[in-house]
Amino acid sequence: MHTLPIIRKIFQGVATRHEMHRLFNRHRGDPSYGAGDAAPLFAGEWFEIAEREHDYMLEILPPLWMRGDMFAMREFMTDNVTSIFFALWIDGHKRFFHAYCDLSDRSSPEQMKRTIIERESRPIRAMTRDERLEHIWSSTHDDYRGYAGKGWPSNMQGKRTVLVYCGGLGTVLKPLADLTDVEIAAKLPVQFRHLPEAA
């Protein structure tokens, strides 16, 4: 059964080339990635890049296709999921984005484009809780994040975990989804800590 991916922003700010390549590999180690069921991990993810990175990716290989303000990578990440790169005018400025779209749904690139423009056209900077958690996961070094293994309760196994400082308990692994607002703020860069919750 084909399920629609959840479109989600996974990194705040403009990713550098190094950050971009890390974001391409942010699911390395996920149990479903190794089991060959990685399409839901990638499909729907997006983040902003600079023009230089957009043009660099265009020059790597001839694109699968080009449509006005977007092009698709010829090499697929998994199944029908591939990278789509956008050059979009938002509030009078040309900005550049990378997204993973499932091309088994032909409308997915246009839907992604609409979602990015809507999200980035908000009058004030804001972040949802999910965006905060995704940014933490994206920006945390591999040595300080992972997946709950056999030592965890069965209902928690395979879920994303990060190291957090818990006062008297020291540094402990905690499920990413269970971080408190205080723990989230502590792990975010200073410029993102006090942004309002996005409506």
Distance from first to last alpha carbon: 31 Å
Shape: globular
What letter string, H or E per element, gives the SSE order?
Answer: EHHHEHEEEEHHEEEHH
Q: For the report, how would you describe the main beta sheet?
A: 6 strands, mixed
Total helical segments: 8
Number of strands: 9
- Strands of the widest sheet, in order across it, are 1-2-6-5-4-3
Average pLDDT for all residues: 88
Low-confidence stretches: none
Count of discrete domains: 2
Look at the helices and sheets and give the structural class.
alpha+beta
Beta-strand fraction estimate: 25-35%
Radius of gyration: 17 Å
The share of residues in helices is 25-40%
Protein name: DUF1419 domain-containing protein
InterPro entries: DUF1419
Organism: Rhodopseudomonas pseudopalustris
SSE inventory with pairings:
Layout: E1 8-15, H1 17-24, H2 31-34, H3 39-42, E2 45-49, H4 51-60, E3 65-67, E4 70-78, E5 81-90, E6 93-102, H5 108-120, H6 129-139, E7 145-147, E8 160-165, E9 171-175, H7 181-187, H8 190-193
Parallel strand pairs: 1-2
Antiparallel strand pairs: 2-6, 3-4, 4-5, 5-6, 7-8, 8-9
InterPro entries: DUF1419 (IPR009862)
Pfam family, one: DUF1419
Organism: Rhodopseudomonas pseudopalustris
